Structures are given as C-alpha cells and as structure tokens.
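Record type: ASSEMBLY
Status: queued
Input:
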Amino acid sequence: MRRLLLTAGMVLTTSLGVLTAPPALAQKIFKIGNLSPLSGPGAAFGIGIQHGAEMAAEDIGVFQVAGERYKIEVLPYDTVYDPAKTVAALNRALYSDDIKYGFILGAGVHGAILPIIRQSRFFDMFLGAAGKSVTNAENPTVFRFMASSDQLYSTFTAALYQKLGVKRVAFLGPNDDLGKSDVRTLRELIGTLKGQAEFVGEDYFERGAKDFGAPLLRLLALKPDAIDTDAAPTGTVALIAKQARELGYEGYFFSSTAVLEAKPIVDIAGKGADKVIAYRVWSKPPTPLYEQLAERHQKKYGEPALGTVWEAYGATRWVVEAIQKAGTFDTIKVADTLAASSFAGHPFGPASWGAEKTYGARRQIQTPLPASIIRDGKWEPLDVRVGTME
Amino acid sequence: MTAALLAQGLVIGLVNGILYVLVALGLTLIYGIVHIVNFAHGEVYMLGAMGIYVLHVAAGWPLPLAMAAVLAASWAAGVAVERAFFRPLRGQWLQLVVASVGISLIAQSLSWVIFGAQEKYVPSYLPGVVQAFGVRIQLERLLAAGVALALVAGLYALVHRTRLGMAMRAIEEDEETARMLGVDSDRVASTTVGLGFLLAALGGALVAPIYSINPGMGLETILMSFIIVIIGGLGSITGTVLAGLLIGILQSIGALAFGAEAATILVFGAMIVVLILRPQGLMGRA
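Status: finished
Output:
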C-alpha cells in the first residue's frame, strides 16, 4: 500500500512537472517600441507604424539570434507628438520595459530625446522629415526609414518644375523647426536651378490652424505657379487648397507629408483638389508586396493602409535581418551591420543607405520614391525616382 | 499692398470677425449674467459641428432637422450643466473654474475616442463664390456671417427689450436684490447658460462646412473667444461685437501686411494694450 502510494505520488508529481514546465522550444520576446502619436491629429501616422510593424512581426514569426529564439512584440507608447511626452515614453520604454529598439515619429520631438538616445544607445527607427539635425554622425543609432524633406526636394524639384512649367514658387508651411528648415532647403535648391524657377515668397501657419485666407492672399499677390505646403497633414492641405481656389488660385500644390489621402482632400476642396501633388503617395503599387500588404491591412484592421504602414513594415524586417546578421542585439554593432547592408524586401523596392556626404553618416534610407497628382478626384502617377543622396 | 488686396483682406477680416463674435457672445453672456467663465465653451462649439456631421452627413437627416436637433440638444445640455454643476457651486469661483475645465477635458477626450482622429467634413450649405469690385467671398461664409449678425441683433433685443432680458440685467446688477424683487434667478441662470451653449453650438454648426472638423477644433476658438471677451469687456454684448470685428481685421490685415506670425503678435499685443489702458475692456464697466 505504501509503495502504491509512493508510486502514485511520483507519477502525480512528474505529471505536474511536465505539464507546468516551459516547452523546450519556447521563445523569448524581442520588444520594439512604437513611440508615436496614437491619438490626436497625428494619430494616423502612429497607427500606421503600429500596423506595419505588427504585420512584419507576423511575417518574421520566430527568429534566431545567437542560438536563442525570439518573437517580436510591438508595444505602443502614445506621444501625442509632444516632446515632453516623448521623453517620458522613451524613459519608460528604456528603463521600465527594457526596450532598446523602437520607432520614434517626428522631427519636432527629437530635439528633446537625442541626448537620451546617445547616452542609452537606443536604436531609433526614425520616421520624420527633418534632415541633418537628427540623422548625423553624432547619432549612430538613429536611422531614418523614410525620405527626408531635402531628399524629396533634391530628387524631384527640378524635374517636376520643368515637367509642369512651374516658374514661380511660394511656400506655406508649419511655423516650427521643420517648416523653417524646409523653406531654407527649398529656397537654396531653387537658387541652384539657374533661372528655371524663382522662389517668390513664404508664410507660415500654426499647426491646427483652419483659416489660411490672409497668408494665402499675401502669397497669391506674388502670383506663384505652385505653393509648397511642406509636410502639412491632409486636413490642412485640403483647407489650403480649398481656400486658395476660392481666392482664385489655379496653380499647383506640392506636399511632402507621409500620409495624404485623396478622398478627404476631394471631400473638402472638391474640384479644388485637382493639381495637388504629393511626393510620397503611390498611385500604383510599386511591388507585389506593397499590394499584398494593402489588402492584408484592409482585411486585418478594416481600414485602408496609410503612408507609414509600408515604411514601418520595411524597417522592421530590415532591422531584424541586420540583428540576425550581426548575431547580437548590441545596438552599435547592429547599426554598423545595417548601415553596410541593402534590403530587397522593402515594399517600395530595393533599399539601401545613403547621405554620408550630406549628413556625415549613412543613415538615410534610399528607395524608389513616387510623386503623384490628383486629377478628377484620384491619384495619378506623375513621376518615380530613386531617392539617392550623396 | 494694392487697394484691391486691402479690400479683400478687410472683407476676410470682417467675416471672420463676425464668426468669432458668435462664439464669444455665448461666453460673455454666461459670464455677464451668472459670472461663470465657461472653459468648456470650445468643446460646445466643437460638438455643434460634430452634431451636424453625425446627423446631416453620417445619418442623412435633412439639414434643417439636423440643425434644429443640434440647437435643441445644446440648449438642453446648457440647462443640465447649469443645474448639475454651476448652480451648486455658484459663488465658489475656483471650484467653478475647476468644474468647467473638467467638463472641457472630459468632452474633448471622449470626442477623440468617439469621433476618432480623422478630419471630418460637412458639404457646403451654399457652395460658390461671389465676386464684386474685385473682392471674392464664399457664399457659405456670407451665410454664416449673415446668421451671426441676425443673432447678435436678436440677442441685443432679447437683453434690452424683453422681460427676460430685464431679469438678466437685474441679476447681473445685483442678484440678491433681484431675488428679493421676485426674479427667479435659478431659471434665468439656466436660460442664460442654455442660450450661451446654443450660440456656441450654432457657431460650430455654421463653420462646419467652411473648415474641416476634428475633436481638437475648439481649442483655437476658445482662445480667440477669451481674447475677444477680454478686449470687449466681460459681459458686454456691444464690446464683444466691436472686439470681434477688431480682432478679425487685425488678424487679416496684419497677416497680409507682415505675415501670419506678425498677425498673432498684433492680436495679443492689442489685448495687452487694452488690459493696461482699460482693464475692464473697451465697453466693460469698471
């Protein structure tokens, strides 16, 4: 009886041990932070990053680094595009949640967080428009995974102005570091066009402004053929187009924002939306992967995919590939490996790094880039170029 | 600057100014009669715009019905807020401020959750542009300005020509004495706040097709409303109208002459000058 009880106890204990023991092939978690606006006016950008990274995580599945298996988890931190909240989010990600890799959206918030990034060597998958102020040799773990404003200007400006017969250009952009920096870049670039075009004037608006009547009136008095609206969001571009048309303007609008949807612009501006040109909008899918992701996004999330989805997808896959190649999560070693690599699996097409001469470090993504124009309420292709930067 | 440009700028400024007046009037009315600074005024304006979007665009209601529903709801909300929050705290200035800020934050946060971050649009009530003497103005703006002017006149008549208006002025002057003379100050307070909410919601409903709408649209409007009310004089309808027109023209002509940044400096500069030289505002009582 005693032996029977002892045997039963051993069987029971062993069974419990087997049932509760972790599986032999369990994976660790590789956390990627998404430090971007997830509410408020910039939410479309942040939600796009979240979705793009999640879809990439699904496709990567379980991956191996130095003999260990990892699965990706994308953790959101809502920054509301506020520098103070971004600092808080980064500190929380680094020191509470032990996250070393993440997307951080917005040039406007980087001034506050770059010292933290430098000190902690946080791997910043940066999505934002600003150029050298963020991606440079002093910030070796910051990689810009989207086209910068100066990259877009240098890639497209001369060719499109010639194609469309644009001679006089005005700038109406946000009253912040980005707007002030981009207008300088545009003015300098137009200056190099040797009389092909002329920069006639500039004005600024506060983010969130709705009425542009007075600044438009001032700029329209200078008779521009094109108004550059910089990286203004969809609603702002739509209102500028609407109000400019109501004042009699018939020229072009150029936009470098990452997320620009035709439907809201047409809804708000009507026929006035025609001749709105966007640098980052694909009117036709550049690769089968791009189209597959768009369909998948619609099925999975019940809404169309927006600009940052594809950039976040490409960034996640490329960085994980670099980590595997480097054989470590050490952000400096991964940065070196990434900077030396190219990537064939980006939704936009073949990707590489550039801008070593311009920014002092190879930290600017180079991919095929589109320019599209709204005609009769729909995006149509205008140009496609590879955004190379020396 | 050419004469045509100046004329266009003036027209833009005047029309914008009248639209500001409509929202600011509600604020000054509530303060003037019940001495409450309604920090939730911008959210009421935003909810007026959202209400039109939900009922007229999303649900497909005819515009007159949607507008009537929005106005009725805003009136009812004003009465409810006065009874539930303002009345119990009357006389306690700090608690009233905290309560109205709290209502504002709750309304805005809920709106971001319910309506989302995407800009919404309302089709124009009156599409088209009218041009005269080289000046272009959108018909929908003219409509909004016309309605606002009519309301200003109506409100002035209400306050100065009706028994209700007399009761409002009596309470504004001396509530205790007014009560002793038989004025139902609670009913007047409810009516006043209801009217203030209605004016703000109507402002939002009128500008909905002019601009796009999102839950954050009340912020800039409430700031401008406060500036107008301070310059015009808290509680003064005439002062609010004058200040609104002045601010609209300053913004427009300032931006035209010097750029948008300079226009902002001019507006705040005007507010500071008035506060220094005439702290009670242009038409306020010392």
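Annotation: Chain B has one domain: 3-277.
Annotation: Strands of chain B lie at 129-132, 135-138.
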